[in-house]
Design brief:
Layout: H1 10-15, H2 24-38, H3 66-72, H4 75-88, H5 96-118, H6 126-133, E1 137-138, H7 139-152, H8 159-165, H9 168-173, E2 178-179, H10 186-212, H11 222-263, H12 267-286, H13 292-298
Antiparallel strand pairs: 1-2
Helix pairs in contact: 2-11, 2-12, 4-5, 4-10, 4-11, 5-10, 5-12, 7-8, 10-11, 10-12
Length: 303
């Protein structure tokens, strides 16, 4: 029988999270999207001004809700903290260094995808570029520049260039409104990527604990067994609190994904954010199960 750590062994395949678990994401988005269509509350016009009578009744429909500002907006910081905690909680073993190095490579891949999609891609990020390509522009800021050109004869960068190449972040900072194009949901993309990656990594940590936490050599002396038992007990406590922390982030991420599905973006914009994140997850966690060469680089959590 192949060893448990062999990805080709039947026992290992049973312990790997199946791909069908990822169905939780389209189900969440579909549920939220249907609620946004069917609920009378969700049909109310949205406003960020609390004094406007048409303001949303639901707190999570506001972009300035505390969870959006201090969790989603800085989600990659929370993700990094949780991922680092998981790596540090790995069960002591001869191949712990290899597993940690491969985990770091998986983190680097996820971070690279996040950075290219939402932050920078040889200039504006992929999401910003796709928005501009589909006709998106910084409307309010453009109107102000047009007025300045016509009234005062402002000389400088062409208005068309300003509207074409400005990023969503820069547009908002300039007082403009990023509108008119296909705005791929960065929230959906990031929340799916973060929760799925942390979920796979957490399962890997639990697999290590189940397989190695109580392992000792049959001929080990009493002192060595006592020492190993103390290390295992300490490691289990750290692992327990780490998994609770990670579970909290995954749970809150899932809730905010549902809120995003209800209150923001079109169906297609949410679907595209989901597809991009699922593509990254496939490359990082499912492709290594099929390609030995790739598995030797990024590894598989818990193996």
């Amino acid at each position: 029988m192949p060893p448990p750590s062999d990805p080709s062994s039947p026992s290992s395949k049973l312990r790997f999270p199946p791909a069908k678990l990822l169905l939780i994401y389209p189900i969440t988005l579909l549920t939220g999207s249907l609620f946004s269509v069917l609920s009378p509350v969700a049909q109310r016009p949205l406003s960020d001004d609390p004094d406007v009578t048409s303001a949303p009744l639901n707190y999570f429909a506001r972009k300035d809700n505390i969870f959006n500002i201090f969790f989603v907006k800085i989600g990659w910081i929370w993700f990094t903290l949780a991922f680092g905690a998981l790596i540090l909680s790995y069960t002591p073993s001869p191949d712990r260094g290899r597993r940690q190095a491969q985990a770091l490579s998986r983190y680097a891949l996820a971070t690279l995808v996040w950075y290219l999609v939402t932050q920078w891609f040889f200039g504006p990020a992929i999401i910003d570029r796709s928005f501009v390509i589909t006709g998106g522009r910084c409307e309010d800021a453009l109107a102000e520049l047009h007025a300045a050109e016509s009234e005062k004869g402002v000389v400088g960068a062409r208005v068309d260039d300003f509207g074409t190449y400005l990023t969503a972040t820069a547009c908002k900072a300039a007082g403009g409104e990023w509108s008119g194009g296909h705005d791929v949901s960065g929230h959906v993309f990031m929340l799916v990527l973060v929760t799925a990656v942390l979920g796979f990594e957490a399962v890997g940590v639990m697999m290590q604990g189940d397989g190695e936490a109580t392992a000792t050599a049959p001929d080990a002396d009493a002192n060595e067994k006592t020492k190993t038992g103390v290390e295992v007990e300490s490691g289990n406590e750290i692992r327990t609190w780490t998994l609770r922390f990670v579970a909290g982030i995954i749970g809150l991420g899932g809730w905010m994904l549902l809120m995003t599905a209800i209150w923001f973006h079109t169906w297609l914009e949410k679907a595209n954010g989901l597809l991009i994140s699922l593509g990254a997850i496939y490359v990082i966690y499912f492709l290594p199960r099929r390609m030995v060469e790739w598995r030797n680089i990024v590894g598989i959590p818990g193996v």
